[in-house]
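Sequence only, no structure available. Ideas?
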Amino acid sequence: MLDYTKQAGYPSYSPPSCSTLRRKIRRFLPSELRERNELLQWLFWQVGGLGPMMGQAQHFFSYAPNSLPYAIERYHNETTRLLKVLDDRLADREYVCGNYSVADAESPSTGGRSSRTLYRRRLT
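Reply:
I predicted one. Tokens follow.
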């Protein structure tokens, strides 16, 4: 993450840190501690689970030089499972955590469509 705010007088690299992230996206983070913790749990779930699994699935579906049925099935199944978790969360609410937040911005579900339906369409 490059910080161009010139606080240091020059663009500086820093590993992704909660303080830098919070400063840049403060308006999308709840002020209530319990709500903020819930949002951060969902955000970390997405960047540590769903994102990497979708990336692996996409790699083995589209870019691997050889078809590897085990890898395709494994990442497809895990991505489908994680998208079901997200779909279940969104079944009775519009947003992942209360109001629109960074967790929604990072979410693959868009426009009220089922994220699993969008994922299946990409496979065909």
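The chain has one domain: 30-123.
Hope that gets you unstuck.
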